[in-house]
Design a protein that fits this description.
This protein is mainly beta. The strands form two sheets. Strands 2, 4, 5, 6, 9, 10 and 11 form a seven-stranded mixed β-sheet that branches. A four-stranded antiparallel β-sheet has the order 1-3-8-7, with no helix packed on it. β7 and β8 form a beta hairpin.
């Protein structure tokens, strides 16, 4: 059984920073691409940032220059450093990873709330 556990969400003022972490555990053979998505109330879930196993990254236009995704393969962990936060960044943030056990499946974390006050 594979689990993705997120941490690091919370309440922050506009202009502040937060760092999200997501660690995968279980009978993992390998982890391919990992990423962060977010879903604000009344909106669809959207990709925030992704990172491949080789370290290539991609970002939503709305977060470019403010957010940085990284990963520690030895710890099966992906991070999202969020700087210059804006009220419109308020959402539940979900970790996502494509993981190979005896098959390759995309897993989701439980979500962590990020609230940015103006």
């Amino acid at each position: 059984q594979v689990q993705l556990v997120e941490s690091g969400g919370g309440l922050v003022q506009a202009g502040g920073s937060l760092r999200l972490s997501c660690t995968a555990s279980g009978s993992i053979f390998s982890i391919n691409d990992m990423g962060w998505y977010r879903q604000a109330p009344g909106k669809q879930r959207e990709l925030v940032a992704g990172i491949t196993s080789g370290g290539s990254t991609n970002y939503a236009d709305s977060v470019k220059g403010r957010f940085t995704i990284s990963r520690d393969n030895a710890k099966n962990t992906v991070y999202l450093q969020m700087n210059s936060l804006k009220p419109e960044d308020t959402a539940v943030y979900y970790c996502n990873a494509k993981i190979t056990t005896n098959q390759r499946i995309r897993y989701w974390g439980q979500g962590t709330q990020v609230t940015v006050s103006s």
